[in-house]
Design brief:
homodimer, 280 residues, alpha+beta, four-stranded antiparallel sheet, three-stranded antiparallel sheet, globular, DNA-binding
Chain lengths: 280, 280
DNA sequence: CGGGCAATTGAAATACATCAAGGCGTGTGG
DNA sequence: CCACACGCCTTGATGTATTTCAATTGCCCG
């Protein structure tokens, strides 16, 4: 049994509880909501072309044909081109006004803004199924650098084709509004975190956010997950220096809340970590 | 000659250079772009009903009739209700999912997020013509507190009416997307400022941003402008404590860059202030 | 006139940055 | 296969930015 088939059999509670599942049930699954909410992460890394049949974004953007014909899904006339890029390489240059919108198929990337003197702030980490910038769907958006953290495969779509598709379907537009609001809410929360929380809070929250994000995508919630970030990524996301990140990660580990080894992270004491993070 | 007529005669370079002016020229002025970009601030404070005939938002949302019939403008079937609220009172509660969208007609307000323990972060200051939250136009958006800083008059529109209007006109939708992207870009810049800039930089930048915002609205660029913010507002916007804000404002004044007296601020040495702010 | 909010100022505390050195893993070229 | 360089992480010592605490003043408003 190959990994893809294995994944197809997955039918975990966390998946059913997600918004995407809810929408499938309601027979009104939409392109970007689905793309944002969940996709088949691990499998994409192995074989994107096969695995994408599981990815909601594929069915709507990659030209795939839905198998549940009765559910109201129909094939969409958009297909992007697939690209692979090694770790540390740029996917989008800050000065570029591209006519394309990339969607991550496998691997981790990050979107950041930089100052001339080198200081920079990570705005969001991008995992499989993430649209590189929701705002860039309808108008080119400059200033952000998008960089691959691991090796990344992604699909590039012509903005013009996406626009034509979206304007033709009110349901997709509605879903886009929701996505946009979610992105804005995350940006506002980020500002709150950076302006008003201390280092340990920020780092604990980042870990918890990433853990939830990964959980949504892998369809199972495990205490251990893939964690390819370097400490300088964490530093740039939390507005700290790598040195200080190291010290605080050390404390969290010595306190038995988390363990980082190799390129994976384990949450050992979730409730303590939630407390430090001042979660919800 | 009354102030309103006076303002109409104003034809300053800074106004002509703005995007709104450009759109008027092109004969395709749209509701929200205009509302966001500029309006007749000072006059609104005096007499909103009169002055709103100058406010782009009025022509499109308040049911006003455009005087340039040839320009492609037409009266829109939406009218909001006018409200007045004293300083320090809430316009929108964080838990509220209102069916209304307010637009500021006069005065200053602020939109912020708060933590249970009282820490809070100002996301944006709202001046006349500003939609209280662009994201809330199409879906209710919770979590933000909107508070009047000075006495504020504002118009409340039914979200449902706005939605119907917007979906019927692709040109308005396009403009809305642009507005969204601008709001998102500001949120991202805020994160960069909070995460990666030092206190003096943040404060200098805030002052310059507000100065530009006021200039757009008053149609004239003066060195002195109305500045009703208390130091705790600046603190909450820059992620600092009021004490520290006081110290840095003191330094900026002693260095001869600005002067704050009464409720107005004067930029005495713009180039030095730009340098401190690391502007553009 | 009193009371409370706002601003200023100085002293002390603390959170975070910077600097510097050493270890560890990984890829690379000899 | 080894030596080596390089990036990454760790750790301690020191420096600095910002907060906290506290006292004082002015001001507005009732």
């Amino acid at each position: 049994m190959n990994p893809v088939q294995d994944a197809e059999k997955q039918d975990s509670p966390s998946y059913l509880a997600g918004q995407v599942a809810a929408e499938v049930m309601a027979g009104s699954m939409t392109a970007f909501g689905a793309a944002e909410a969940t996709t088949s992460t691990a499998m994409c890394a192995v074989s994107c072309d096969t695995a994408c049949t599981l990815c909601p974004a594929y069915n709507l953007l990659c030209g795939g044909m839905s198998k549940e014909a009765d559910g109201g899904l129909s094939p969409l006339p958009i297909s992007g081109t697939l690209h692979t890029i090694p770790a540390r390489r740029l996917i989008l240059h800050p000065k570029e006004w591209s006519e394309f919108v990339p969607i991550v198929c496998s691997g981790w990337a990050m979107s950041s803004i930089a100052l001339p003197d080198g200081r920079r702030q990570v705005i969001s980490f991008l995992l499989p199924g993430d649209i590189v910038s929701v705002g860039s769907l309808l108008a080119p958006l400059s200033g952000h650098t998008v960089e691959a953290i691991t090796e990344v495969t992604y699909r590039k779509f012509k903005r013009q084709e996406i626009k034509e598709l979206l304007f033709g379907r009110v349901d997709l537009l509605e879903r886009l509004f929701t996505l946009w609001n979610e992105a804005k809410a995350r940006a506002d929360q980020l500002a709150l975190d950076l302006g008003r929380r201390r280092a340990d809070e920020r780092i604990a929250r980042l870990i918890l956010r990433l853990s939830e994000k990964v959980a949504k995508r892998s369809l199972v919630r495990t205490q251990t997950f893939d964690f390819p970030l370097r400490q300088r990524h964490i530093a740039d996301a939390t507005g700290l220096t790598p040195v200080h990140v190291s010290k605080i990660l050390g404390e969290l580990q010595r306190a038995g809340m988390i363990e980082i080894s190799g390129r994976s992270l384990t949450i050992l004491n979730a409730s303590e970590l939630h407390r430090v993070a001042d979660w919800r």
